Amino acid sequence: MAEKVKVAVDAMGGDHAPAEIVRGVVEAVSERDRIEVILVGISDKIEAELAKYTYPRGRIQVVHASEVIATEEPPVMAIRKKKDSSIVVAMNMVKNGEADAFVSAGSSGAILVGGQLLVGRIKGVERSPLAPLIPTSKGVSLLIDCGANVDARPSHLVQFAKMGSIYMEHVIGKKNPTVAIVNIGAEEEKGNALVKDTFPLLKNCSDINFIGSIEAREIPNGYADVIVCEAFVGNVILKLYEGVGSVFQAMLMQGLMSTMRSKIGALLVKPAVKKTLKSFDASEYGGAPLLGLKGLVVKTHGSAKAKEVKNSIIQCITFKEQQINEKIKKNLVQEKV
Amino acid sequence: MAEKVKVAVDAMGGDHAPAEIVRGVVEAVSERDRIEVILVGISDKIEAELAKYTYPRGRIQVVHASEVIATEEPPVMAIRKKKDSSIVVAMNMVKNGEADAFVSAGSSGAILVGGQLLVGRIKGVERSPLAPLIPTSKGVSLLIDCGANVDARPSHLVQFAKMGSIYMEHVIGKKNPTVAIVNIGAEEEKGNALVKDTFPLLKNCSDINFIGSIEAREIPNGYADVIVCEAFVGNVILKLYEGVGSVFQAMLMQGLMSTMRSKIGALLVKPAVKKTLKSFDASEYGGAPLLGLKGLVVKTHGSAKAKEVKNSIIQCITFKEQQINEKIKKNLVQEKV
Q: Is A157 an 8 Å CB contact of chain B?
């Protein structure tokens, strides 16, 4: 029998906690035999939600944590002060080996800070990037880094490219993934100081499939599988992606409802349009891993519903099975020698 | 009678040159009495296009320039070597006061470099930003800087905020325009070093309506009228905006054509959807000014057709009429004292 994968889940994080989180957990354990979940948070509330479902009891455990970190709290302070918060308690479980992974829809800042301070980085990893999958017309690309590591150095970006390639190949299943660096032109001599310094280093990496620069315009076309950038730029890309998509959808809907003729047409096109929009929906792919930590930490959208929570939990199986951290360790340590 | 506005137009730049450029010029002079255009480029080709139209002959002059700068040419070299190119000849006309403004759909790099080297910056202006208008659900915002000034300093961003406010108020007609700086969170303490250093400087500017940080997600909602960022980030925003929009449209069209039912519906929704998409089309607003130069330089999209060329030319009237450069000079020189 395959080894179990123990996932600690933050029951209190996100806009739809705890209801959608608990539902996602129940769906995950129902769908995959190998998963065991530890739901961390205010136990009364968790138990009240769990009572709504039938599920294999032995595979969901509840661990009480009396505090909750809110999204707007300054992260460093929150992690230091709220020792009995769901995020801190669950991250300590990963650190102590009681859980393989941690999934949360809670405060991004607290998850990023907690990941570095509590779980800790793999030796040799300089920074731990947040790497969400973004939808493209060809499928999905990994955008690395979108975290809080602003003002990165070239050596950080090189590590991001390596870790991102490993994740994309072994977790998402993309063979020999292409890697590109975000730039303001296709030519090697273009870019800011960081990109100009990083470009030749990436070009010299024999263990990644570096294809050069990517202009932002090409990102939605799926031009590269792993898209490397520093976190400020990554954050802008990720959020603008969501913003343009949702404004576009809202305007489209408004347009469809604007005349009698278009309203009738809207009834006919709705199923097809819905299907199209769904293929551009990142929640299908689960959450964003924080790579290079001693355990796996996955951040899902604050707005995550059950399906995204379930997919994020299931993604932890592949991460463990494929020994991603061992691969990262081996790859980055080799590099150092 | 109001003063004439003389606009030099690059007849050779852009994907649809010279045909669409010449058509745009003819439309502009036909629509507005005050405009005089100098079409610069290979005269045979220009004359052949002009021969297709009826227009007030005295208001379009052709000036021959034997060379053309291609988009892929290294800009600095091109500007230095191709002395008889349409871009260099036309920019020299602006420099010498023979033209008030220059409009081109040609090589962005060459226009940016030529603007600085040939036309020259207003005294006191540290850098000349490229400031396109981007469509939002509320109308349009000015994104400043999207040029080639990477690795900017805080003082540059402060000047961008001031020049952008002047342009937005007096050319676009937005009273007391709101100004925000692109950031990865709404709080003052967030951001990279550049943003953290710039934020308090903007907060202390009494002559702009600074409203704080803007996350990329809020840009398409029209949260701020003037969006300040350094050029690398601005370039990413601008290009991603275009990229997500066009992939989204393509996928939508694919979805509409996917079933018999949706095809019938598509016929009914088409006019309404087209209208919606049009309101999200930046070409309605003309081109992007390169601000802070001794004359006006306007860069239109490489894909610009007649309408965008026409709108870009017409926008030069307001720029001159409102004495934008005098306002910039006064504002930035005051600041220096």
A: no
